[in-house]
Amino acid sequence: MPIPENAKEIERWLKLLGADGVGAIIFARLLAYFGSVDAALGASVHALAKVEGIGLPTAERIVASRDKFDACAELESAEKSGVWLLHMADPRYPPVLRKIYDPPPVLYVKGTLCREDNLAIAIVGSRRCSLYGQEQASRLAHLLGAAGFTVVSGMARGIDTAAHTGALAAQARTIAVQGCGLSRVFPPENAKLFEQICASGACICELPMRAEPLAEHFPPRNRIIAGLSLGTIVVEAGLRSGALITAKVALENDREVMAVPGKVDSPLSQGPHYLIKQGAKLIESVEDVMDALGHIGAQLKEHTELAAKEATAKVEALLFDTARFNLKGNEKTVFDMLGKEPLHIDQLIADTNLPAGAVNASLVSLQLKGVIKQLPGNLFVRR
Question: What is the pTM of this model?
Answer without folding.
Answer: 0.81
